[in-house]
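[Q] Does anyone have a clean structure-token version of this?
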Amino acid sequence: METDSELDKKPKKKQPVILLSETFIAEHRASKESPSLHDITEKDITNKGIYIEDDVPKFVKKYKANPIYRELSIENVTFDDVDKGTFEESDEIYREAIDILTENEYLEWYHKKSAYDLLVKAAEMNHSEAMKILAYGDMLGHFNEPKFHLSYLNKLAEYGSSDANMLLGFIYSTGLGIKDRDPRKAIIYYSIAGLYSNTLAQMALGYRYLYGINVEKSCSTSLDYYKKVAEKVISSLKITGGQAITRYKLTDEVESSSSHSSLSGPIDKNLLEYYILMAEKGDTQACIGLGALYLNGARGVNPSYENAFHYYSIAAKDGSPTAFGYLGKMYLEGTKVTPQDNLTAFNYFKKSAEKGSPVGQTGLGYMYLFGRGVEVNYTKAYKSFLLATEQTHPEGQLYIGYMHFKGLGVKRDFALALKYLQAAAQGGSISAFYWLGHMYSKGLGVFSNCETAVGFYKTVAERGKWGVPFMQAYTNYKNGKTKEALLQYLLFADLGYEVAQSNFAYILEKTSENFEFFNDVNTKEIAFTFWRRSAEQNNPISRIKVGDYLYYGIGTEKDYKEAAEQYKLAADKFANSQALFNLGYMYEHGLGLPKDLHLAKRLYDQAVEMNPEAFVPVTIALFKLKLIFFLRSLNILG
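[A] Here you go.
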């Protein structure tokens, strides 16, 4: 239930300080008595609330409904050489194309072709938005084979388009569609776009200043950029959570054969159909699970308020406290199937809370904390959140931490705030990451630490809605659309997303296709670059890949000493069995390291301890070593 900028706004109405301290909490837990909800009733509702249509134009909503273009803005750049009549004619053609593109999320090829032809026609009439979508869509292969409309982007950039500047930064950074990469020019374009508050450009700059990529390394500058993006994420969070940003690591699927069946992987179609069958028969747990999947679009399921409401309603009829809580969230936020209604939301939360659900408890607390339909009451808010924290609920922990951070109805206590916010962050609360970033950047309750603060802000920034195409990239790869997947991952890799970097390098390494858009640049060199960037962001598999490339001289010069250093980093930091084995081999043969058979044996032993699956190769290596030791004992070997 963590939500928008309300977390950054201290309610104006003053409340008596109730001084709930760590001592109080300890005493309360020792008593084994939970705070009572008897004084929380619907009589507290002062504003029932009505559904108010926001002021976002319907066309903008339709444009933004397509996840492919969600990261672009509608700028309506006007060219001097376009008269009013021409613009109106081209705008009508452009809107017709958008209607086709947004009619269904998954379009047949002939629908795409119709929309594409209309965009081409509008772009030829100098319609700025048509030019931009055409350039962006063709660049990432959304319509057909990748194309690069540099003339369109240059003209748009000349007239102040932040999106065009961002895309030019991406092109010059990666060398897509141009003869030579130009990292310096990329920085210039990204910087111009960043000045216009372009989100993706700000992320690209934050990443570059953090690691010193083509700029002088500056943690403080990186922090400024990532904080700006993180603030956008926090201000747009929904009570219901918003659409899940699903990012699957392709390397993890290789490492674990069970990844598809894990709770973090995309849900199997047959399994989803089974859950639907069980839910329609009244299985409460199946209904709750489906409600969660459809509410936030988790595990590759397309989000649907209608389906979420349907399944939560079935579970609610069976008395599910969790279903009551989520229905409360939907009514408090207001959706097209649940018009905003504070009283209905309150009653659902109360039913949920009385049955012990932390979802309902945090819902009530939220309403009292921010005065959503009730008078602000910090005492009731704190009490409700405290009930949720007893069940280690991340949202309850978030708001208890927040209240101590702000001193809302309680003594301001940064140490206590830090404790609860850290617990909430471990539970996955995005808002908790944001406030931890704030505390570490300002030195509130902790020693100021820029690197730690940037890490928190970067985590928040990468949960923004612009990351939704990650799932589309994964789907494209699984469906054999390698070029589309590669280009989509490359865009986010250039922005600093570690998962995109490792996925891009993985696809580039595995495929045998010749990608003409890299203009004969050695793709192994490009893969090596992104394996290294991923490794710098603490991916152990990528760290080993960097070592492998250096060991064999793939995409770079052969360097045993540096390869050993990469394996050592992976072994020391992650206790990775493959890295331990590789180090053992290099010590055994004196490759880049002093020859040391005893140390090699120790590393082989550690490798099998870390991963029993390494038993066979380790056994072979150890047998060889024992043979060498035996022959030495007979003075047959020196």
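[Q] Thanks! Anything notable?
[A] The first helix runs from residue 22 to 30.
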